[in-house]
């Protein structure tokens, strides 16, 4: 009889945590008590991470997170793994829950238009829409949406400089659609573009993971695998684990930033 799969929960929420340590301590204690492993990042701007373990334990941790200020409606992306994809449980205090390095970018105040997976194909098929992949260069190697611009940025911190250097090439009034793994980088990148004066900015709600979960492969415009920051490395349609191409190597250490 095959062993029960390990449940994996990816989540993030932009909200205000004035006291990060007050959030970190109880959260780490509960996760350890429930046998949960993974990484959660806690910053003044919110929480982000991926954790794995028994379903009951994850439910307890997520219930705790939903009781935190501004986290009641946090969305969770569920998947499974044949073996535990993390070695230990970490709750880290960070300056940002996803590092862009641009002061005053606040997705709780300004953000692009969320587009659900069911409407994404129609949007990005429009000829006047510029589709941009906001992920790191080594992630794009594994897979991308057809026709997407690859900024070839080593880290998300490099994205603002790339955009400013290429802003004029997008045209005077571009309609920009962006996507990332789970949605969090697009929260910041759309907020950044809006602050830079781009009026029509869209992003894939729930990220690639939600698209691969919801959209049948025969209807999909996604090609290849989606890089994830754990030992599974690459996921495909239905969030199934894919073989890693020979010679592939992530150029950044695993983290919760997705």
Automatic annotation (TrEMBL):
Catalyzed reactions per annotation: uridine(34) in tRNA + AH2 + O2 = 5-hydroxyuridine(34) in tRNA + A + H2O
Family: Belongs to the TrhO family.
Physiological role: Catalyzes oxygen-dependent 5-hydroxyuridine (ho5U) modification at position 34 in tRNAs.
Protein name: tRNA uridine(34) hydroxylase
Rhodanese domain mapped to chain residues: 125-220
Lineage top rank: taxon: Bacteria
Any coiled-coil regions, as ranges: none
One Gene Ontology term of the molecular function aspect: transferase activity
Enzyme Commission number(s) from the entry: 1.14.-.-
Gene3D superfamilies per UniProt: 3.30.70.100, Rhodanese-like domain
Pfam entry (one): Rhodanese
Gene Ontology biological process terms from the UniProt entry: tRNA modification
Entry keyword set: Oxidoreductase, Transferase, tRNA processing
């Amino acid at each position: 009889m095959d062993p029960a799969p390990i449940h994996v929960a990816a989540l993030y929420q932009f909200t205000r945590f004035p006291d990060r340590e007050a959030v970190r301590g109880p959260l780490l204690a509960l996760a350890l008590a429930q046998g949960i492993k993974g990484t959660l990042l806690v910053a003044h701007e919110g929480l982000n991470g991926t954790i794995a373990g028994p379903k009951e334990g994850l439910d307890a941790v997520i219930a705790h997170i939903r009781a935190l200020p501004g986290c009641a409606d946090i969305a969770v992306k569920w998947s499974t793994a044949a073996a535990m994809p993390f070695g230990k449980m970490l709750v880290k205090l960070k300056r940002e829950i996803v590092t862009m390095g641009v002061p005053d970018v606040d997705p709780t105040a300004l953000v692009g238009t969320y587009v659900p997976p069911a409407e994404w194909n129609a949007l990005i098929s429009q000829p006047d829409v510029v589709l941009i992949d906001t992920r790191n260069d080594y992630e794009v190697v594994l897979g991308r949406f057809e026709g997407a611009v690859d900024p070839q940025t080593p880290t998300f911190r490099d994205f603002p400089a790339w955009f400013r250097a290429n802003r004029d090439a997008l045209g005077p009034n571009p309609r920009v659609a962006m996507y990332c793994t789970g949605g969090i980088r697009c929260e910041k990148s759309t907020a950044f573009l809006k602050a830079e004066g781009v009026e029509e900015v869209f992003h894939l709600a729930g990220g690639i993971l939600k698209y691969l979960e919801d959209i049948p492969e025969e209807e999909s415009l996604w090609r290849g695998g989606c890089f994830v920051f754990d030992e599974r490395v690459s996921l495909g349609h239905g969030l199934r684990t894919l073989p890693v191409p020979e010679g592939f190597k992530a150029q950044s250490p695993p983290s919760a930033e997705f």
